[in-house]
Amino acid sequence: MSENTGCNTGTSTIAVLVIPRNSFLYSCIVEVYCAAAVCFPFFNREAADWRGVSSEGKPTDVFINIDVMDIDEIAEERMEYSMQFYVNEYWKDTRLNISNKPYGTHFQIPKEILKSIWTPDIIFENSKGGWVYQLAVPNIIVKTHLYGYLHRFTRYNMKIACSMFLQNFPMDTQKCFLSIASLANDDSKMLLKWVDERSEEETLEKVHDLYLGNVHPLKYHVTNATTSKYKQEWPIGIFTTLQANFTFVRHLSSHIFNSYIPSGLVVMLSFLSFWLNVRSVPARVALGLTSLLTLSTQASQVRSHLPPINYLTAIDVWLFSCILQVFLSLVEFATVYSLYSRKLRNRRGASGKAWSDNGSRRLVGSEISDSRSDTRQGKRKTEKISTKEPMSADFEEELQPLDRASRIIFPLGFFVFSLVYWISYLKTSRTF
Question: Using CA atoms, how far apart are residues 172 and 255, in angstroms rounded to an integer?
Fold first, then answer.
């Protein structure tokens, strides 16, 4: 008694051992039988022709879909991003004897056969480097598929170039893409298409052109993923290029806590110098210089994570404005202290002249002349005491009108700048 295995063997007759259908050995032998009936009889020398042309003389349609597993790094300093993904390729080769039925079992084609049949020669045009996964086994398989298709799926880990425009950094949105094209076969031999372009009768499974799994990049979130294609004309022919497009929006929260809030606090800390006494020179200078050095270090650290671009970014504008505010506070103190010193000299000069007019200095001179027994040290002490005048609190307040005005002008100016800054940059950005 024989069993019908449902394998397409053409005109050949193959004997099958009589084994109970429910046994494990039966299922194993049927699989080997079907694999031999489907894979090996279709191999011939004609299939080894490297031209991807169908028997009707039309170009071979190669349908592509991409399954993105992870986007683990988006590096601004190198203008690239890393992605792990599967590429699924579907094509028909009419020179091979594969069943065109919409059902059946998928069989893996042995590696020995793969070396002798035609396969698409796709390349990734904007790739900077990558590899096919080799963990445990090479992650590349070719199987027979429904409707007579061959199906090759390969897992890649790849670094892909992405030209980024960082003028709005860190409130920027980046658009990156992955380009797939044929290396040697132009459109007269092979046509690259997205899998959604298959005919309706051959659409058996819910496969999208571009699928994103649980993808959550560390510094971004993916807001949009689309596909497109275009044609390029070269001297050797016209080539179709498939393009997977990704839109990355940067997370702003980390920059708020690591850059914006600390720099804002440093600026407000420098404003405390306006409440210090004008004679507190070491305290006010140290406060201003420390704030200035802190902001300069922070600006250098931020720039170290960016490429050597020749334009200002949004965070450059912020940090430069913060540095300018602190610098102006130091200039304000220098101005106040200069006015203070000038008025102090004028006041002392006026006081000395007034004392000379009322005879105070003559009195001191008479006392020194009459007292022949006084020593030189006593004379110096008498002169010092006679010319000293205590500094009144009203005089110090009189010399600090600029400080009092700065206590309002500087914080108000920083608040207005911050308001304009955030409204301007967030108006066209969705980064939260």
Answer: 12
CB 356 within 8 A of CB 383: no
* In 19-66, alpha helices (H): 24-38
Cis-peptide into 59, omega within 30 deg = no
CA atoms within 13 A on the CB side of 197: 16
208 by Cβ neighbours in 10 Å (0-12 / 13-18 / 19+) ranks as: middle
Distance between CA atoms of 137 and 117, rounded to whole angstroms? 22
**Spatial CA neighbour of 162 closest among 91, 77, 96:** 77
| C-alpha span between 176 and 210 (Å, rounded) | 14
pLDDT (0 to 100) of residue 241: 97
For residues 181 and 266, is the Cβ–Cβ distance under 8 A? no
CA 200, CA 52: separation in Å to the nearest integer? Answer: 23
Q: Buried b / exposed e across 133-159, counting CB within 10 Å, b at 16+?
A: eeeeeebbbbebbbbbbbbbbbbbbbb
Residue identified by tokens 């035609």 is 118
- Residue 171 has which token pair? 């409130």
Residues 6+ away with beta carbon under 8 Å from 223: 173, 247, 248, 249, 430
Mean pLDDT, to the nearest integer, of 405-425?
A: 95
In degrees, rounded to 5, the angle at the alpha carbon of residue 59 between the alpha carbons of residues 53 and 63 is 110
pLDDT tens for 354-411 read 444 444 444 344 443 444 444 444 444 444 444 444 455 555 555 578 888 999 999 9
Three-state DSSP class for residue 307: coil
Residues 160, 79 contacting (CB under 8 angstroms): no
Give me the phi and psi of 224, to 5 degrees please: -155, 140
Task: Encode pLDDT of 252-287 as tens digits.
Answer: 999 999 999 999 999 999 999 999 888 888 999 999
CB–CB of 190/182 below 8 Å? yes
DSSP-derived pairing of the beta strands 60-75 and 190-194: parallel
Nearest to 183 by CA among 250, 127, 136: 127
Residue-level pLDDT at 376: 46
The sign one gets for the Cα dihedral 94, 99, 102, 107 is: negative
Q: Which DSSP symbol is given to 259?
A: I
